[in-house]
Design a protein that fits this description.
The structure is a homodimer.
Chain A lengths: L1 H6 L6 H7 L4 H7 L11 H14 L6 H10 L2 H5 L2 H13 L1 H24 L4 H24 L6 H32 L1
Chain lengths: 186, 186
Amino acid sequence: MALFAERGYAKTTVGDIAARAGLTERTFFNHFSDKREVLFAGSDQFVKQVVDGVRAAPKSQSPLDAVVSAFESMNDFFEERRAFSRKRSALIAAHPELQERELIKMMSVAAAVTEALKERGVSASAASLAAEAGAAILRVGFEQWGQDPQDRSLTFHLRAARRQLESVVGGAKGRTARSRARRVAG
Amino acid sequence: MALFAERGYAKTTVGDIAARAGLTERTFFNHFSDKREVLFAGSDQFVKQVVDGVRAAPKSQSPLDAVVSAFESMNDFFEERRAFSRKRSALIAAHPELQERELIKMMSVAAAVTEALKERGVSASAASLAAEAGAAILRVGFEQWGQDPQDRSLTFHLRAARRQLESVVGGAKGRTARSRARRVAG
């Protein structure tokens, strides 16, 4: 991150990164397939913790509750890295090739969460919808957390994003109920 | 699609495709950046129609209603191509490199829909959540449509996926109301 700030992401080479870290390029490539990957080093661990969280969730929790709780369990991890996370997010936002990689990582979270939900007996389509709803909550909650001038917690922003998603998705119910009422009234 | 069925996707080359279509490879590359792209030829047009649909939606429609209505307007287009769509979906499901491309295309739909909703005055986070909820409905609805032994319409399956998403996302409300009731009762 220091090198990217000094030289710009595009101008930083794997050779530069290896040298700064006191490694050979060969050792770098033992750990990362390319330059982009250094920004996603923790993502396998993240997926694992989220999946473990979903598996450990009480059976009484709804699929989406299980997913959001699993994200919330990462709160302290991210709080300790807020400054780093902000720099990383700004870098990703500025480079389409990084956005693409981020998207694929996010998709692997959704795919792993879908499988973990199916293990809990959730139907394939409900598991997929809950995983994608969770991914949307994570993306928006994480973004709001990164930009919050009041530095409120990730858990706060995940819950806010979830309420907003409930409002967005539930919007038609009110409308349908109203138009049904109108039909009945008419 | 005929060539992919005859030779398998992996063994079909751009040269094979160009020859079958009576084109030079050079002409192929004027239209497609690589072999994968032939399977996503209509996606820019799809994004454009969905965005036009969102822009044309009555101002009284909720953001998610506007998005789902725009998808529903593609019903006849896809009904005419159900057999082709099934083959295409099976091919994509069998090749991770195609899944990745599909994912990136789907993300470009969500990004374009987010912008179209923001033009309607929807906040950035609500627009993003509605676009991603819409993308989840499209993905699940489209999959169910492709697999339906009863050949019900895409619109039918989009509406079913939407109701299921409402149930998945709204799940916590009931729970919260119940636990609140328990607290009050206790």
